[in-house]
Design brief:
Helix 6 packs antiparallel against helix 7. With 306 residues, the protein is of the alpha/beta class. The protein has a single domain, classed as Metallo-beta-lactamase, Chain A, CATH 3.60.15.10. The strands form three sheets. A six-stranded mixed β-sheet has the order 1-2-3-4-5-6, sandwiched between helices. Strands 7-8-9-10-12-13 form a six-stranded mixed β-sheet, with helices on both faces. The termini are far apart. Strand 1 and strand 2 form a beta hairpin. 36% of the residues lie in helices and 22% in strands.
Amino acid sequence: MTTVLRWVITSLLLKVASSPLDVNARLAVLEEPWLSPTNCELIRDPIRVEPLDEITFILRESPCVDQEAPFLFLLMGTVRALLVDTGTQDGVFLAEVVSQKLAENGFGFTDLVVAHTHSHLDHRSGDETFVNAGAIVVGHTVEEVQKFWNLEAWPEGVASIDLGDRLIEILPIPGHNDNSIALFDHRTRALLSGDSLIRGNINVTDLIAFRQSVARLARFVDSVNPSVVLGGHLERDNVPLGLAPASVAELVVLSERVNFVRPFASGDHFTIVYLPVVLVAIGCGVLLLIGGLISRLVLSAKRRRM
């Protein structure tokens, strides 16, 4: 398809979808599909696809395929498209779904940029399929992410990508993972937060970096005024996917309550878990248990010799 024809098609779609999009109202309609299925035999497709409008799609891997059930996002403009995360699987079925949506809007894989909210495997396992298909896939190391988005002062600064009449801003927010980012879509005014802000447990590996990141995120939220925050997972049933922007301020407060002595802090919608402390505690508990068993075995052996 020629560039001119593609521009015409996507421009027309943008005009059709140009009326103010009430993301929260649309999400309210979609909440039921996010519930964990009670019977996986009735689930046919490994990915659920729900449009916010003609050029914005939420894709969720079925909990029947993988318990992580991550949310992925496909955003399109007049020039290119952006896929945020590739999920837990090999990406073959996801690529088929994305290919269909791209074609409907006059795009191919060479017009697609694939980015990641962070580098955990449940958000990038499908990368190779998209690389082989000809998409531009952002690397997953800090250096690769920093270079692609031209964030020279990482983790400070804000980058952007223009999809064509659709600006996406990228904000580094390490702490959950060392290369975590948030993405703000100016068209829907949705903030995509990955695993750094979700309904459920927010695992933190670097507490100092996380505190600094959520403070920057709060300032960013104040400046752009998003309509909703969309995380990468939904760990609780019967709750909506979208979080109010005010939840970022709550995250800032909770992050200050977490420390080496208190590795957990819970709010209304999520719990921060300081993972290194928890893992050390579990490790110590296991060692004590093993030590206790060995002591009992040694004592038992001595008694038998008497």
